[in-house]
Amino acid sequence: MNILDDINYIKKIDVSEGYKSLELLPDQIRQVLIDSSVIKIPKEYSKVNNIVVAGMGGSNLGARIAKALFATELKVPLDILAGYEVPAYVNEKTLFVLSSYSGTTEEVLSLYLEVKKRGAKIIGITSRSGKKLEKMMMKEDILGYIFDPKFNPANSPRLAVGYAVFGLAVLLAKAGMLELKTAVIEKIVNILEVNDRELRPEADSDFNLAKQIAVQVKGKIPVIVGAEFLEANVFVMRNQFCETAKNFANYLVLPDLNHFAMEGLVYPENNQHNLVFLFFDSELYTKRIQKRALLTKQVIEKNSIKVISHKLQGKSKLGQSMEMLQFASYVTYYLAILNEQDPIPNPWVDWFKENLG
Predict the structure, then answer these.
(1) Is the pLDDT of residue 1 over 70?
(2) By the 8 A CB rule, do 2 and 201 touch?
(3) In the predicted model, is pLDDT for residue 314 greater than 90?
(4) Number of domains in the chain
(5) 320-351 per-position pLDDT tens digit
(6) 226 and 307: one domain?
(7) Which of 47, 71, 200, 292 sits in a 20 to 30 Å window from 350, CA-based?
(8) Looking at the structure, do residues 29 and 122 belong to the same domain, yes or no?
């Protein structure tokens, strides 16, 4: 029997019960849709020239997906700030989003006074935890979304991306930056619930593609490849490989990789043993990207490096983005089990924060 079909073994490794949060992605999205009825953003917040989302690690994953996914719909540029310094262009015409799942993210909190001094229109998104950002939003009357993370029992930001993506999307929609169709999202949620039955631990590995790919990448450095509206999804999966599976990974984006990365496949000579490329294919990519993906795979294989392809089935860009998010979360979860690592704790991050002071 495949060890990934042994539920007792999985639960023995997954002490933090991360699988429960994976199964609840559809519920996270549905909760945001319900909560959205009470979220209010003044009309003047739509009169901005740019959007900046400040967030670190798991707290900027939602912003990255929203930026890539709604690139052709957002009425103004969206930038992601992952650091301590406020860009010079931030001013009274900026919609500035403070994003911190925990509410304690040092970098994000440090930006508030400077952004306020610049006169930016500030909103926040955080979980209901009683921590600093939530208290700041209450004290300073900062608008935004404070959500109850009841559908993330593992309490891990990278497993709360349903809240992050749609929480931010709702805030931007309320600010007049894009249009969200509830009926479309509800249909996607229903599809995610069906997909989950084929991906969760109880689903046999003979039919569970996430388990199959986890087995194929075990012992390798995965390089995830995507394009266009899925550009952020490959970034998210890279993070999940590192944090969830405790397995180093990287990502590349088409068409940019065709202009540099292919020449780096030759050395070191052990690339063919250490690397595995994981392509996420989509019929919603432009035709030139689809042709580039096909040729890129041939180049990689000519260098004797393994290529794994996974074709997404969703009918819309939003649907495929959420499909990939769900699938990637399960692949990296199963790799954590194969690596005999509890998927939720991040001991090196904790050590680093403690020593940083």
Answers:
(1) no
(2) no
(3) yes
(4) 2
(5) 999 999 999 999 999 999 999 999 999 998 89
(6) yes
(7) 200
(8) yes
Pair of tokens at residue 248: 């180093």
Residue 128: pLDDT band with limits 50, 70, 90: very high
User: Do residues 89 and 176 both lie within one domain?
Assistant: yes
Q: DSSP letters of 289-310?
A: HHHHHHHHHHHHHHTT-EEEEE
DSSP string, 6-22: -HHHHHHH-TT-HHHHH
pTM of the model: 0.94
- Assess whether 171 and 221 both reside in one domain: no
pLDDT in tens, 295-312: 999 999 999 999 999 999
Q: Which tokens in the block code for residue 333?
A: 């979860």
In this structure, the strands spanning 143-147 and 121-127 are parallel
DSSP string of 199-220? HSTTS-TTT-HHHHHHHHHTTS
Q: Is the pLDDT score of 129 beyond 90?
A: no
Same domain, 238 and 271: yes
Average pLDDT of the chain to the nearest whole number: 95
Q: What is the CA radius of gyration of the chain?
A: 20
**What is the rounded CA–CA span in Å between residue 282 and residue 276?**
19
Question: Could you write out the DSSP letters of every residue in 112-175?
Answer: HHHHHHTT-EEEEEEESSSSHHHHHHHHTT-EEEEE--TT-TT--GGG-HHHHHHHHHHHHHHT
Domain of 283, CATH number, reads: 3.40.50.10490
Residues 125 and 69 in one domain: yes
Contact (Cβ atoms closer than 8 angstroms) between residue 343 and residue 336: yes
